Amino acid sequence: MTIKDSLVEADAIQVGVQESDWQKVIHLAASPLVKKGYISTQYGQAVIENTLAHGAYYVFDEGIAIPHARPECGVRHNCFSLVLLDKPISFADSEAADIVIMFGAQDSNAHIEEGIQAIVALLDNSERLAKLRAAHSKEEVIALL
Q1: In principle, which of 13, 33, 46, 117 could form an S-S bond with 138, CB 3.0–4.6 Å?
Q2: Each residue of 61-74: pLDDT tens digit?
């Protein structure tokens, strides 16, 4: 299943989100995945605790955050969630990000290989990133993916 298929199936695309608290953004990203039963309610909190303990290692220079936790933190089904923020924010003391892609993987290999590789392939295109940032609806985002 592609990221696009996963996002559509989970109804996990949020566009134009106005939020300046990174912890709330983590919970927002987790929310549709919890609702579908793909991750437990503890998964978002595990991401926050990892960030507080180890820093926001998942924020990249391009303004992209890929928050995630280990499979045993509550992943029931491989999944993705996308939050496009109105304005970039810092996660802990990281660089600012406005594209947030949470993912959950059921095993450690999928966690690294499939999850991150799929996201990098999707976002390794500056034109697509600019169009994502300019999107005003879920439908626009789906068309770009």
Answers
A1: 13
A2: 789 999 999 999 99
Instruction: Give the number of domains in the chain.
Output: 1
Has 68 been annotated as catalytic?
yes
Burial code (b: 16+ CB inside 10 Å, e: under 16) for 2-25 equals ebbebbbebebbbbebebeebbeb
- Cα–Cα distances in Å, from 28 out to 32, 62, 126? 8, 21, 25
Q: Which CATH number do you get for residue 130?
A: 3.40.930.10
| Sequence-ordered alpha helix ranges (H) in 1-145 | 3-10, 22-35, 42-54, 108-109, 117-123, 126-134, 138-144
Residue 115 — pLDDT band, cuts 50, 70, 90?
A: low
Percentage of the residues of the chain whose pLDDT score is greater than 90: 75
Pairing of strands 64-65, 96-104: parallel
59-60 β-sheet, strand order: 13-17, 79-90, 96-104, 64-65, 59-60
Point out the catalytic residue in the list 68, 77, 111, 136.
68
Domain that holds residue 111: 3-144
**What's the whole-model pTM score?**
0.92
